[in-house]
């Protein structure tokens, strides 16, 4: 709204031109979202459902308690819902609205909120949603969001290790981008199991995406130097990411160990969608690997493992868990050597404490970010 008003007010008084500065919108949106969440989230948390303790369903259908899940039982969960409400003023004021064409962008934001809503309904349900129900919902929303991002037109994309650009037709872009969004939603959701882990990894990813969108892809001089296409709309998406980053920073005030509040599926799924949308907005479909490598390893490998086990079971070749005292088969060693998400493996098998997992995963992602950035962006 402020960006749109700035176009009419800049002739009234000179400083009003700042309302059309993406940097001002970026900083103002992050500050307002952070302030609103920090001030009001504890008050709204009183009406949130209580966490029942975390459990996962294995490929064989058995429910297994997640390590440390009992520690979260009884805490308010689903904080992603009030966070989404508290971010609305910042989005309304600072997310740039250019003209009627911005309705496509509003549709993208609505898809982000739909992910939050599905997670919220799951958080407050007496019987948690099953994997099939969640998967179908995620698939539909991801495909719809991918179509809105491309606006029903072919999309120019750039790729690592080459200067060539590829114009992806709609029929190819929508399923590929939808798959990436689906993965971003669920890998972020899988990382939400230890106080501060998902929040800190997400905040680091959001910060990297702001830099990619505003400083690299959105800056004509930098983009020309790096031999990548400049995007006029990149700075707009950087503003959106900064609002969510501000909200996440304020949430971590209450989620750091020992946490008093959990964002639940409502938050993790919403923020996962934002990471996916921002990564696609850079024009490079591989950027998700750069900004969220540890999150993808932590949760993504588990999703791949589960999918493979279910495919093998449907094909009539199930892979049961190895029995104690019996030598495992090669397939059992492949699928059951590691526990997923990886943060559970680190605690159960390696004996790391929750805080060791958080700090070490954060350090790994912080070290991988510049290395992957050089490989995927600079080496061309």
Secondary structure: elements and pairs:
Elements: H1 2-9, H2 22-44, E1 55-57, E2 63-65, H3 69-72, H4 80-94, H5 103-124, H6 131-150, E3 155-158, E4 165-168, H7 170-190, H8 197-217, H9 220-225, H10 234-255, H11 264-281, H12 287-291, H13 293-314, H14 330-336, H15 342-348, H16 354-378
Antiparallel strand pairs: 1-2, 3-4
Helix pairs in contact: 2-4, 2-10, 4-10, 4-11, 5-6, 5-11, 6-7, 6-11, 7-11, 7-13, 8-10, 8-11, 8-16, 10-11
Helix content: 55-70%
| Count of alpha and pi helical runs | 16
**Main beta sheet:** 2 strands, antiparallel
Poorly predicted ranges? 56-68
CA(first)-CA(last) distance: 39 Å
Element string (H = helix, E = strand): HHEEHHHHEEHHHHHHHHHH
β-sheet strand percentage? under 5%
Shape: globular
Radius of gyration: 21 Å
Write down the overall mean pLDDT: 87
Number of strands: 4
Quaternary state reads single chain
Category from helices, strands and their pairing: mainly alpha
Physical arrangement of strands within the biggest beta sheet:
1-2
Please, could you describe this protein's structure?
The protein has 380 residues and is mainly α. Helices cover 65% and strands 4% of the residues. The protein has 16 helices and four strands. The strands form two sheets. The chain has a two-stranded antiparallel ribbon with strand order 1-2. A hairpin with a 6-residue loop joins strand 3 (155-158) and strand 4 (165-168). The radius of gyration is 21 Å and the shape is globular. It starts with a helix and ends with a helix. Mean pLDDT is 87; it is low at 56-68.
């Amino acid at each position: 709204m402020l960006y749109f008003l700035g176009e009419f007010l800049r002739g009234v008084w000179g400083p009003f031109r700042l309302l059309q500065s993406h940097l001002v919108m970026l900083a103002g949106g992050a500050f307002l979202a952070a302030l609103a969440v920090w001030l009001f989230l504890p008050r709204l948390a009183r009406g949130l459902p209580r966490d029942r303790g975390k459990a996962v369903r294995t490929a064989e259908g058995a429910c297994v308690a997640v390590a440390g899940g009992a520690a979260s039982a009884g805490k308010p969960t689903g904080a992603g819902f009030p966070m989404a409400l508290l971010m609305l003023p910042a989005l309304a004021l600072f997310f740039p609205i250019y003209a009627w064409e911005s309705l496509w962008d509003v549709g993208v934001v609505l898809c982000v909120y739909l992910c939050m809503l599905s997670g919220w309904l799951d958080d407050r349900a007496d019987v948690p949603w099953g994997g099939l129900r969640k998967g179908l919902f995620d698939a539909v929303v991801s495909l719809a969001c991918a179509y809105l991002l491309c606006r029903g037109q072919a999309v120019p994309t750039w790729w690592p290790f080459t200067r060539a650009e590829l114009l992806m037709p709609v029929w190819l872009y929508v399923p590929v981008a939808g798959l990436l969004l689906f993965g971003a939603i669920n890998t972020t959701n899988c990382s939400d199991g230890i106080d501060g882990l998902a929040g800190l990894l997400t905040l680091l990813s959001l910060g990297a995406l702001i830099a990619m969108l505003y400083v690299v892809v959105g800056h004509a001089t930098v983009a020309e130097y790096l031999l990548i296409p400049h995007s006029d709309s990149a700075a707009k998406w950087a503003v959106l990411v900064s609002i969510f980053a501000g909200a996440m920073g304020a949430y971590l005030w209450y989620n750091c160990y020992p946490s008093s509040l959990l964002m639940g599926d409502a938050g993790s799924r919403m923020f996962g969608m934002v990471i996916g949308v921002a990564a696609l907005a850079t024009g490079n479909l591989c950027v998700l690997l750069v900004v969220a490598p540890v999150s993808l390893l932590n949760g993504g490998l588990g999703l791949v493992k589960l999918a493979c086990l279910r495919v093998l079971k449907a094909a009539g070749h199930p892979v049961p868990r190895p029995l104690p005292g019996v030598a495992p088969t090669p397939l059992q060693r492949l699928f059951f050597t590691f526990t997923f998400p990886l943060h559970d493996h680190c605690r159960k098998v390696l004996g790391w404490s929750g805080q060791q997992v958080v700090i070490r995963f954060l350090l790994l992602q912080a070290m991988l970010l510049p290395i992957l950035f050089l490989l995927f962006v600079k080496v061309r």
